[in-house]
Amino acid sequence: MKIRVEYKHLHYAYLYDGETQSVTRAYGPQATPHVFIFDKDRKLRYEGRMDNSYRKEMVNTLDARDAVDALLANREVPVKHTGVFGCSTKWQEKAASRTEALRKIEEQPVKLEMAAAADLKRLLENPAKHMALISFWATWCGSCIDELSDFEATYQMYKDRDLELVTVSANMRTKRPAC
Fold it and tell me: Which of 36, 117, 167, 174 has its CA 20 to 30 A from that of 87?
């Protein structure tokens, strides 16, 4: 961040709260980003999201900007609170439980089978009537490797809700040992 501040000539406070999270705890953000806007008397006037969408092309309300514009014009902030979305706040005390959860996940056996056309057809028929997340990937595909952990995380989050995860390696037969 120091390099970015210097390069961009930014002139605002950049604070690191990672050692204790004491400031973060005092404000209580639910996700990042989570904006808190105070007036000149340090009274909280707006709390919530930056805008209404994480996709720039879908943004049609600029909630934080509207709050700042209202305060600069000595007007009441029209919307004082909005829900937030983004990455959930990562609390330090939960890090140990995440580590333990990962250890348990890694202890689970992985079933590796050669698939035939009939097996893939059975997946489409879905005889068990489970919701299925099926990912075709290959060990030679960089984005496939990167995204595989996202599929695993989704499965771990929803495995108790009747979700089945199936990954199908599209590697050539000669690459089978790499699977």
Answer: 167
